[in-house]
Amino acid sequence: EKSLKGFCAYMEFMWNDYNETHLKSIEKLLDKSARRSTGMDDGFKEYYDYWINEPETKYGENFWVKVISADSKTIGIMVIGYAEDSFLISEYVIAPKMRGKGIGTKALKELLNESQAIIGKKIHRAEAVIYPSNTASQKAFEKAGFKYYHTYEDGDAMEYIYEQRI
Known about the structure:
alpha+beta
């Protein structure tokens, strides 16, 4: 298992690659609110199994699942994809007791600033799709540097984009 806290002492969080030993702690993150605001409404295992078994999915090249920890406790999970020169943060959940405290924004900023160490690639452009009712996520992504881009025609989702000036 790859853990980066020791590698980058200045990082606030540990970013571990997902493995099945994390499943129980991840499922605890998925309260009613998280299930309603993600594609993990049937649970994380079903979500992960679906994506990891897609023929084009290559873990560590175009797909990452990072378990975020602080003080030896799982505080979040982030699923990141890569296609067409852009990263997609497709799922991002912070522990229910940690929400509303700026932790989500801090971890997101850390990913953007330290992406080379965390996923092995530099993030210059990223997208996030957020439900209109999920105002907490909208605020966290905006505070991390994402900008509102547009709302889908059906009104079900909003797209946010992060672009780093090079």
